[in-house]
Amino acid sequence: MSGGVDSAVAAARMVEAGHEVVGVHLALSRMPGTLRTGSRGCCTVEDSMDAQRAANIIGIPYYVWDFSERFKLDVVDDFIAEYAAGRTPNPCMRCNERIKFAALLEKALDLGFDAVATGHYATIVTDADGNRELHRASAWAKDQSYVLGVLTQEQLAHSMFPLGATPSKAEVRAEAAERGFSVANKPDSYDICFIPDGDTRGWLAERVAPATGDILDREGNTLGRHEGAAAFTVGQRKGLQIGTPAADGKPRFVLEVRPISNTVVVGPKEALAIKEIAGTSFTWCGVAPAHPDIAFECHVQIRAHADPVPAVARVVAVSADSTAETSASHGTGAGTELVITPAESLTGVAPGQTAVVYIGTRVLGQCTIDRTVSAVSADSDGAGGTDGSADSVSADSTVAVDA
Amino acid sequence: MAVYLDHAATTPMLPAAIEAYVRALAVVGNPASVHSQGQNAKRMLEEAREQVAASLGCDPIEVVFTSGGTEAINLGVKGLFWARQPRTRILVPGGEHHATVDTVEWLERHEGAVVEWLPLDALGRIDLAAVAAAIAANPDDIALVTLLSANNEVGTLQPVAEVAALAASRGIPVHVDAVAAYGHVPIDFHALSRAGVAALSVSAHKIGGPVGIGALALSRRATVEPLLHGGGQQRQVRSGTQDVAAAVAFAVAANALQDLSLENARVAELRERLVAGVSASVPSAVVNGDPTPENRLPGTAHFSFPGCEGDSLLFLLDVAGISVSTGSACQAGVPEPSHVLRAMGRSEVEARGALRITLGRSNTVADVDALLAALPAAHARAAKAGLADRVPGR
């Protein structure tokens, strides 16, 4: 129970469904922020008190479980390291993968619980063989199946999402008010919970030492200098401070951030269009497809609130060399790569982001994007996208966050 | 019906104290008022002060009522520190209660104090040689020495009189945090004060009085700077309208300490049964603190269960209807590894698996046996869940 409205209503519904329920609040920081106005996170003293008050009203016991050490290692440090490597991590997905449905779930099972229920908006469907499938929530506007795409069959078997069938968030708020929860009108949290003021860039700048480097065009010509590659976002136009105008007079955009050589590559807007994404670190959510090596039709979603795009996906074998530098620490895809080709080109895609693959409403799996292929080639060398090495990635500070 | 085994956190109010409290609440009159109703309130207050003084072995004028143990400790430590300026050093053993730890750390950050942490031995007892050495190094710059008379987690008693004698030989005042000891071991403030103790803190709710009142026994020879300024009540040391009803209820609980020795002997026997039973059912359990009965609190049993998180055990026992403590908690409810065990030189693993079980007036053999019956299953599950920093999916 985060102290927000969703988990409070979820807990109440679990009690009414006849389960024996205990409220658990995760302590994710050893230094919980002081009383902040409204809610921007999930680990303040006020949030903990809000969660406890909701538990009191529901009439269930309430405990705080400390996962602050694991959260620092698996989510916060990971976020900094990924960012420093020029990738665009999603800390909420990492928290679901490593904390909520791993450390928390395992501890709960060991202590004698049967399942973890959360206030996520998603639906679990059990097929004829008893296998679990993860589907989008009824309320598509609030659907959070994207950030749950990392869950495996085993995790789904012990997870429950009692809000999945609710038509709208407004109904959840109305239900909370009816139940007398003080958090009925508490604002949703959209920010990263461990960055209290929402200033992701400033927070990261304090933790990743910047160094000056070159700004290049796609042909490798030096156009100017920058104050630190990690501060740039793929798609960014302003603040490049390039003295010489482009030959065609058109504005230039950040196409790539290369952390190892500390360079930023710029080019025309058209070059931002991505025609293929791929990653070696992918998992299947529920039962794996029988023949993932045969191209199959699906939809791909690249951010929590992005629209799903029709695509074709397949798993291909890759040589060891090309996977050596990519982060395959938590996937099933050693020696293989999930390649996704959207029917129309995507924009705003950066390595480190998660692509979630859907079949209809069902989440089929997810993959951390290692490389992208531009829809538009550069004039001379054809370097239209990233080349698969860890030095050709993009950074995006606009991290999409849910729940 | 829950089995309450957390008497060190707070112990049930005595029915007689509740009755006196409620009756006194109905009485009108500010004890500082000159009229007869004020005088009546003042009479009730001073009678209460006399009874509390008797329980502490001090004169009534030496009892300064406070809002509780934390305020008494703040007044004793900060008050002595400020009164002794420009001296800067504060000698403190490791493993003190947070009311002391946070207070001296605040003085260090804001008031130029230099805090010197003194070592504890493996049983939680202060090293007198280390105290002597610290005092011998520039004694003129020491503002005060402060220490627990009984550790609130592991229950080990400290050689307070010996520490006070070392300090007194150089004119250094000593503050004693007797919150955990009060009601369990006799307190003779006159004797301590002759030995060099300037101030001693206690709290009413640890002995069956109400929450919200405590006292600083402050030697008539000692000077402290006040924390609160205002009407000049209580020797100008603690301004604020005095809480007559709470003082009256406190006094009822203090009076009840007269049958201390019988009750403590009974509780000590329960503790023996508890410790023997835990050691038999969970052989890996480590019993913490000084095992010698005369060197420890009678009702406090403190264990480490290596490989378990104390809060997992607490949760599982709570579900089984048994209330115990990990010994420490912070505002957000995030359990910390026991800083007392760390100060005693114990490992992080032992400090994480700490569980404090404290017996009191309401407990019986049946309560101890209920804990012993529930513990093995709870321990097995907590051990399976392991430590909070374990890697998921191991």
Automatic annotation (TrEMBL), chain A:
<comment type="similarity">
    <text>Belongs to the MnmA/TRMU family.</text>
</comment>
<dbReference type="InterPro" id="IPR014729">
    <property type="entry name" value="Rossmann-like_a/b/a_fold"/>
</dbReference>
<feature type="domain" description="tRNA-specific 2-thiouridylase MnmA-like central">
    <location>
        <begin position="203"/>
        <end position="267"/>
    </location>
</feature>
<feature type="compositionally biased region" description="Low complexity">
    <location>
        <begin position="388"/>
        <end position="403"/>
    </location>
</feature>
<keyword id="KW-0808">Transferase</keyword>
<dbReference type="Pfam" id="PF20258">
    <property type="entry name" value="tRNA_Me_trans_C"/>
</dbReference>
<keyword id="KW-1015">Disulfide bond</keyword>
<dbReference type="InterPro" id="IPR046885">
    <property type="entry name" value="MnmA-like_C"/>
</dbReference>
<dbReference type="InterPro" id="IPR004506">
    <property type="entry name" value="MnmA-like"/>
</dbReference>
<feature type="region of interest" description="Interaction with tRNA">
    <location>
        <begin position="142"/>
        <end position="144"/>
    </location>
</feature>
<keyword id="KW-0547">Nucleotide-binding</keyword>
<feature type="active site" description="Cysteine persulfide intermediate">
    <location>
        <position position="193"/>
    </location>
</feature>
<feature type="domain" description="tRNA-specific 2-thiouridylase MnmA-like C-terminal">
    <location>
        <begin position="338"/>
        <end position="369"/>
    </location>
</feature>
<keyword id="KW-0963">Cytoplasm</keyword>
<keyword id="KW-0820">tRNA-binding</keyword>
<dbReference type="GO" id="GO:0103016">
    <property type="term" value="F:tRNA-uridine 2-sulfurtransferase activity"/>
</dbReference>
<feature type="binding site">
    <location>
        <position position="26"/>
    </location>
    <ligand>
        <name>ATP</name>
    </ligand>
</feature>
<feature type="binding site">
    <location>
        <position position="119"/>
    </location>
    <ligand>
        <name>ATP</name>
    </ligand>
</feature>
<protein>
    <recommendedName>
        <fullName>tRNA-specific 2-thiouridylase MnmA</fullName>
        <ecNumber>2.8.1.13</ecNumber>
    </recommendedName>
</protein>
<feature type="site" description="Interaction with tRNA">
    <location>
        <position position="353"/>
    </location>
</feature>
<feature type="site" description="Interaction with tRNA">
    <location>
        <position position="120"/>
    </location>
</feature>
<comment type="function">
    <text>Catalyzes the 2-thiolation of uridine at the wobble position (U34) of tRNA, leading to the formation of s(2)U34.</text>
</comment>
UniProtKB/TrEMBL annotation, chain B:
<keyword id="KW-0408">Iron</keyword>
<dbReference type="InterPro" id="IPR015422">
    <property type="entry name" value="PyrdxlP-dep_Trfase_small"/>
</dbReference>
<protein>
    <submittedName>
        <fullName>Cysteine desulfurase</fullName>
    </submittedName>
</protein>
<keyword id="KW-0808">Transferase</keyword>
<comment type="similarity">
    <text>Belongs to the class-V pyridoxal-phosphate-dependent aminotransferase family. NifS/IscS subfamily.</text>
</comment>
<keyword id="KW-0479">Metal-binding</keyword>
<keyword id="KW-0663">Pyridoxal phosphate</keyword>
<dbReference type="InterPro" id="IPR015421">
    <property type="entry name" value="PyrdxlP-dep_Trfase_major"/>
</dbReference>
<feature type="domain" description="Aminotransferase class V">
    <location>
        <begin position="3"/>
        <end position="371"/>
    </location>
</feature>
<dbReference type="Pfam" id="PF00266">
    <property type="entry name" value="Aminotran_5"/>
</dbReference>
<dbReference type="InterPro" id="IPR016454">
    <property type="entry name" value="Cysteine_dSase"/>
</dbReference>
<dbReference type="InterPro" id="IPR015424">
    <property type="entry name" value="PyrdxlP-dep_Trfase"/>
</dbReference>
<keyword id="KW-0411">Iron-sulfur</keyword>
<dbReference type="InterPro" id="IPR000192">
    <property type="entry name" value="Aminotrans_V_dom"/>
</dbReference>
